[in-house]
Design brief:
two-stranded antiparallel ribbon, Protocatechuate 3,4-Dioxygenase, subunit A, 2 helices, nine-stranded mixed β-sheet, about 5% helix
C-alpha cells in the first residue's frame, strides 16, 4: 500500500484557521478609538506575489482589554494582499523606558519560511519616528523606509513587504 503524498505544512496543521476572516478585525469585540486599516502585499525575491502567507499582527498600544485583544491573523489573497482592521497605536515605552514610535509588530509565515520572520509597521509622518530606538539604528534611509507604512486614503495605511532582493524589508531578530 502506498501512502499518499501531502503538501508541505511549514506553519503546522492549523492552516484552516486562516479562513476565520474575523481574526483580521481587531475591533470586532467593540473596541473604540481611531480605527485604521493596515494593508499591504508580500512579494518574494523574484518579485512574485506570495499568495499563501499567514500574517499576524500584535500591538501593545492601545492596551489589551475585553474589547481589544491587540492581536490578529490574516492570510494573503490571490493578489498577495493582507488586510487588518485595528486601532491606531500610540507611542510605547521600550527598553530602558526609551519612547518607541507608534508601530505594529508583524510576523509572517509561508511556504518555504521554516522559522517565522518578524518586522514592524511604523506610520509615515509620526514625529516619534525620528527618535525611535529601532528606526534610528538603521542608518540607510532606504532600508529604514521599508518599515514605514504610507497613508493611501484617510484611515488606511499601506506597507508592502519584500522578502528578499532589491528593497528587501528590514526583518528583526527577536
Amino acid at each position: 500500500m502506498t501512502t499518499p503524498t501531502t503538501g508541505s505544512q511549514t506553519i503546522g496543521p492549523y492552516w484552516h484557521l486562516l479562513e476565520e476572516k474575523e481574526w483580521a478585525d481587531l475591533t470586532r469585540f467593540g473596541a473604540t478609538g481611531e480605527i485604521i486599516t493596515l494593508t499591504g502585499t508580500i512579494r518574494d525575491g523574484d518579485n512574485a506575489l506570495v499568495t499563501d502567507a499567514c500574517v499576524e499582527i500584535w500591538q501593545t498600544s492601545p492596551a489589551k482589554s475585553d474589547t481589544f485583544e491587540g492581536w490578529g491573523r490574516a492570510r494573503t489573497d490571490a493578489e498577495g494582499r493582507f488586510t487588518f482592521k485595528t486601532l491606531k497605536p500610540g507611542p510605547v515605552a521600550g527598553r530602558g523606558n526609551a519612547l518607541q514610535a507608534p508601530h505594529i509588530a508583524i510576523t509572517i509565515l509561508a511556504r518555504g519560511i521554516l522559522i517565522a520572520i518578524h518586522t514592524r509597521a511604523y506610520f509615515e509622518g509620526e514625529p516619534q519616528n525620528e527618535i525611535d530606538p529601532l528606526l534610528t539604528m538603521i542608518e540607510d534611509p532606504a532600508r529604514r523606509n521599508t518599515l514605514i507604512a504610507k497613508s493611501s486614503a484617510p484611515g488606511t495605511w499601506n506597507l508592502d513587504i519584500r522578502l528578499q532582493g532589491d528593497n528587501e524589508t528590514v526583518f528583526l531578530e527577536i
